[in-house]
Specification:
Rossmann fold; 8-stranded mixed β-sheet; alpha/beta; binds cytidine-5'-monophosphate
């Protein structure tokens, strides 16, 4: 996805400059044309030669340098970039951008460009928590700047806390996401299910699960951005509906079943990321169940397996399922992908930190019916949504997949 993209990286002066060198190397390997700009303080940590060697291009340091041919360098860099990335971004550069100051090459390129800008802050935890820095971050967020938040851990100064440059794979995910706005799903109709279902026990109680709906909403959002017509059948969640998506709210598995079947014949792709309750109370009491006795038994009956049913009746539709597992992930996923007659199953071990319900990230394996398996690194859910959707055009062609190499 990065082949032919012009990515301009602004490296500012923090110890995480050494990690930016690896990032430049990863980007160059993934086919991007990478140009590096360095502040004077960044050059105290690492010399331009490192970045020049890794990017294969000259490094830009001087606002007033006049390139051969007479171009105005900062305007040229700003206009020819598909993406500007600031990594590491110090409190200083963040403050300058937030205040509209352009007094060196990086801040001037940021001021002059109209391309997306990703800021990856890295600094001491107290600096990061400083209210002025937080105010600047909030104001830049509000202006549409993209961020990859710093991680938590031991900082170079010896302190513990938030401030480490984000994992490079999260930065790569963000870059891929921002640059992957092709309309490759134009003309397709995609149905996504999301969130939990709730199964009433009596008028005040219900059975449900921990699904937040974030994964399904990310898939719906990503599919709509890529040009698909999207209908999102959603259990009760606390999320804003993605722009341009038709949302059909449901409560129970039976309602989700009915809503999905009603639209199934008119869609091309179904991504079933809802955590559908497997069982529901056999009867929902019409009055609140009174407290008596030491134990209470509620008899459950099976809900329909919506996805398995779609697998039996599908014609042209492409089916993508999700499987949250706590053991034998791959074995169970391989069984499920064929038992439910799916084109793709996204399996994740919900016991891993950074995976599963409620988190903003996920660690998934893509399991195909022909036995292929792709282990993806930890990704934010929107990046995973795009990675899943990357498979759709390929699977529809029935062809082999040109796989995303997991980012190292
Ligand atoms: O068999 P398991 O519940 O692990 O399968 C998970 C997949 O099946 C998910 O894609 C989920 O949305 C779907 N499912 C369903 N109906 C159910 C239970 C799960 O469609 N009753």
């Amino acid at each position: 996805m990065l082949t032919g993209k012009n990515i301009t990286i602004g490296v500012t002066g923090g110890i995480a400059v050494y990690k930016a060198a690896q990032l430049v190397s990863n980007l160059a390997v993934s086919g991007a044309a990478v140009r590096v700009m360095m502040t004077e303080s960044a050059r105290e940590f690492v010399t331009p030669l490192t970045f020049q060697t890794l990017s294969g291009r000259q490094v830009y340091t001087d606002l007033f340098a006049r390139p051969a041919g007479g171009a105005v360098q900062h305007i040229d860099l700003a206009a020819s970039s598909d993406l500007v990335l600031l990594a590491p971004a110090t409190a200083n550069i963040i403050g300058k951008i937030a205040c509209g100051i352009a007094d060196d090459l990086i801040s001037t390129v940021v001021m002059a460009t109209s391309c997306p800008i990703i800021i990856c802050p890295a600094m001491n935890v107290n600096m990061y928590n400083n209210r002025v820095v937080q105010r600047n971050l909030a104001s830049l967020r509000g202006l549409g700047y993209h961020f990859v938040e710093p991680g938590v851990g031991r900082l170079a100064c010896g302190a513990e806390g938030r401030g480490r440059l984000a994992d490079l794979e999260l930065i790569m995910d963000k870059i891929n996401f921002i640059l992957a706005n092709e309309k490759d799903l134009q003309g397709l109709s995609v149905m996504v299910t999301a969130g939990p279902t709730v199964e009433p026990v009596d008028p005040v109680r219900y059975l449900t699960n921990r699904s937040s709906g974030k994964m399904g909403y990310a898939v719906a959002d990503a599919a709509a951005r890529r040009g698909a017509r999207v209908v999102l059948i959603s259990g009760p969640v606390e999320l804003k509906p993605p722009a341009g998506v038709e949302v059909i709210p449901v409560q129970t598995a039976a309602e989700m079943h009915a809503a999905v079947l009603e639209r199934f014949s008119s869609v091309d792709v179904v991504v079933m990321s809802a955590a559908v309750a497997d069982y529901r109370p056999k009867t929902a009491a019409t009055q609140k169940i009174k407290k008596h006795g030491e134990t209470l038994t509620i008899e459950l009956e099976k809900n329909p397996d919506i996805l398995a049913e779609l697998g039996r009746i599908k014609k042209h539709q492409l089916l993508v399922g999700f499987a949250a597992e706590t053991e034998d992930l791959v074995k169970n996923a391989q069984k499920k992908v064929s038992a439910k007659n799916l084109e793709l199953l996204v399996a994740n071990d919900v016991t891993l930190p950074g995976a599963g319900f409620g988190t903003d990230t996920n660690i998934a394996k893509l399991v195909f019916p022909d036995g292929r398996l792709i282990s993806l690194p930890k990704m934010d859910k929107l990046a995973l949504a795009h990675t899943i959707l990357n498979e759709v055009p390929v699977l529809r062609r029935g062809g082999k997949v040109n796989h995303i190499v997991p980012l190292s």
